[in-house]
Amino acid sequence: MLRRNCLLLFLCFLFEQSSCAPFQSRPGQEWPHSQTGPLAAGRNGGSRGFQRVKRGWVWNQFFVLEEYMGSDPQYVGKLHTDLDKGDSAVKYTLSGDGAGTIFTIDQITGDIHALRSLDREVKPYYTLRAQAVDIETNRPLEPESEFVIKVQDINDNEPKFLEGPYTASVPEMSPVGTYVMKVTATDADDPTYGNSARVVYSILHGQPYFSVDPKTGVIRTALPNMDREMKELYQVLIQAKDMGGQLGGLAGTTTINITLSDVNDNPPRFSKSIFHLRVPESSAVGSAVGRIKAHDLDIGKNAEVEYNIVPGDGGAMFDITTNEHNQEGIIMLKKPLDYETKKAYTFKVEASNAHLDPRFHNFGPFKDTATVKINVLDVDEPPVFSKPSYAMDVYEDTPQGTIIGAVTAQDLDAGNSPVSDLDSFFDIDPVRGTISTNELLDRESIAQHNISVVATKVNNPVLTSKVAVTVHVLDINEFPPELAMPYETFVCESAKVGQVIQVISARDQDLPQAGQKFSFKSPQEGVKTKNFTIRDFGNNTAGVMTLRGGFKRRSQEIYHLPVVIEDGGLQTLSSTGTLTIRVCGCDTDGSLLTCSAEAIFLPVGLSTGALIAILVCIVILLVIVVLYVGVRRQKKKETLMTSKEDIRDNVIHYDDEGGGEEDTHAFDMGTLRNPKVIKENMFRRDVKPELGLCPRRPVASQNSADISNFISLRLQEHEGDTSAPPYDSLATYAYEGEGSVAESLSSIESVKGETEEDYDYLNEWGPRFKTLAGIFGERSETDHDLDFKLWWKEF
Q: Who is most buried in 75, 153, 193, 205, counting CB within 10 A?
């Protein structure tokens, strides 16, 4: 309250210096020249029109303090006009923002008061309108005037950090003044009035490591060489205070968590200078022997370590790799160990950083070295053969018990070890390791034996070693050669002297080391034979050569020629084979025709197959001729009709195909007969009869002379017949009429008498009647007239 009262006194002092013009009128000012009215006239003797007067009051704006806490309404200002003579004849009115609710005016005095406390941060000013009117007539004495009541700001809002708390990071070992981040506080007070919104930053906690700029809020490092390995996280408390940081100003704070990020400023270091490891001699190549580790205080990629074995004693036996997860150095076995050969190894391992920072090279070398000593442990190991594999040769049929070779196994921990084999064909001395045959071997059955020899440790039978032994069975000359195949040799009757008629070769089941070599000859070497001889070509083949010509199948068809075959082994073996030579007939170019003796008596130029084909063709022709004759005879019998009862005209035509000329059941044949023999009430046969059909009218008498009447009657009867077929048909009636001079030309009544007629005139009608003339010329029956009519219909 004391601070606010002091502020009020200060404001009043300012207003007094400016004569408080807005709060009261000044004499001598006139109304605007554009304003005239009856109020002025009334005050000057009752003139009928307004006269021009000067405005009697002037104001621009009023001020009201925010956050007023007094019990009485806060006085804002006073409105007054020169027209107000103090006789209560003028009434003041107020309208606009908050009129009547926030602000009120005394209608008589013009005093304006604020009814409640105001907040500038909610609404900084209010626009209102004031007017002076006649209290009796309520007529305006001057135009309505607009003014502003501005809420005067006081320092009632502290600065606030809207985005706090903050998080920042800065590399370790950064120099002084390295930028960290910037913070900003916001003050809701009026920045244009006084120092209520003027903010000053300061650091309350975090010194001497960091500093803040009081005006901008930029935070920087204040201490050099801050080491992350010593302290990684810093919590800094920043204050923002208004009123320029003076006493009485409001303040707000925020927290900033600053982390030092890592840089590679520390080399790797081994925890000790010597590492002792032990490894069994039986360890497999590639297995892990042990682990060592160099510690790096940095983190992330700055702590990645590379390990290397320094060239020197023992370094060739081992290798080292880095475990990416924990940065350990894993020592791997590179070559097999042997306790009996070397019992210990010593070498150095170097650890260095993979990613170096050139800014810290002056800190010293970023690597460290340690010594590794590995002791090899003796292990009870199986025997070891002197060779990884063995190969031995033995001739087939070697006597049982013959020694073919020996294997040697040695226990490196003690001495020689007993051995045993795993094959029934051989036997082995368990002490000396000599291998001997256990039975006779046959190269033609098994040419190679693969056996396994096992060496067992004497004091520990569980430990064994195995080696492969290959025994090659060598061939001996035990099989004589023979002809390579059963040859089918022939000689042409036209063969000449010295002609090679067959090339032969040989085979041998033996397998000489230098390859096979055969020789061929006749059994009587040096003695001339009459027919054939053997000629050796020297390349494991030979030829059968003729010694004469003029071979005849009639005199001798088959010749037998013995052949002696010898191999080229150390112990020469031979055999005699026999070639069967047939005498055959050949073509002029030497091609084989036939070797059968029966073929001599066959016609020249015709083979057996050709003769068989000719005979088959003759038989087929005979069968065809017999069938043709039989068919002709059958047709001749069935050409003419033999029934005399069916002699009639049949000239009904319709679109439905029937069974032929002799099919007389599809229609009523009675319509074609003589009217004298036509029965009454005959129905059609080609349609299904229906009940209630009207009977046909009687046929006109033969004695009727009016043929047209007869035809008309029949036509009407046919058109009215409901049983008629649905297709077009031609009906021919047998009534001819009477009184013709030429008499009847119809053959309808020809059935009453049978007379022979000569049909030779048909031959004169041309080729189209030739068949008909032949049919009637051969027949002796008397029904030629019927046959002619049937043919005529077909024609």
A: 153
* Res 474: pLDDT: 82
CA separation, residue 504 to residues 477, 510, 517, 535 (Å)? 22, 19, 14, 10
Q: Which residues contact 151 (CB under 8 A, 6 or more apart)?
A: 63, 64, 65, 66, 118, 119, 120, 123, 124, 125, 126
**CA angle in degrees (0–180, nearest 5) for 253-255-260:** 150
Given a cut of 60, is residue 679 above it in pLDDT? no
233-244 pLDDT tens trace? 999 999 999 988
CA dihedral (495, 500, 502, 507) in degrees, to 10, reads: 160
- Check pLDDT > 70 for residue 736: no
Distance CA 748, CA 164 (A): 138
Closest C-alpha among 477, 561, 544 to residue 517: 477
Please state, rounded to an integer, the average pLDDT across all residues of the chain: 76
Pairing of the two strands 344-353 and 305-310: antiparallel
Rg of the chain (C-alpha set): 74
Buried b (16+ CB within 10 A) or exposed e, 495-513: beeebebbebbbebebeee
- Label the pairing between strands 367-377 and 274-280: parallel
88: Cβ–Cβ under 8 A, 6 or more apart, which residues?
A: 108, 135
pLDDT at 20 over 50: no
Closest CA to 39 of 131, 109, 140, 107: 140
Find out whether 547 and 540 touch, Cβ atoms under 8 Å.
Answer: no
Maximum mean pLDDT: which of 8-12, 456-460, 517-521: 517-521
Q: Which residues pair with 126 in a beta bridge?
A: 149
Does the structure show a pLDDT above 50 at 787?
no
How far apart are the C-alpha atoms of 369 and 270, rounded to whole Å? Answer: 7
Q: Which of 650, 697, 703 is nearest to 676 (CA)?
A: 703
Is pLDDT at 699 greater than 50 in this prediction? no
Contacts for 423 with CB less than 8 Å, ≥ 6 apart: 449, 451, 452
pLDDT above 90 (res 778): no
- Given a cut of 80, whether residue 37 has pLDDT beyond it is no
Looking at the DSSP bridge assignments, the partners of residue 96 are 128
Question: Rounded to a whole number, what is the distance in angstroms from the first to the last CA of the chain?
Answer: 150
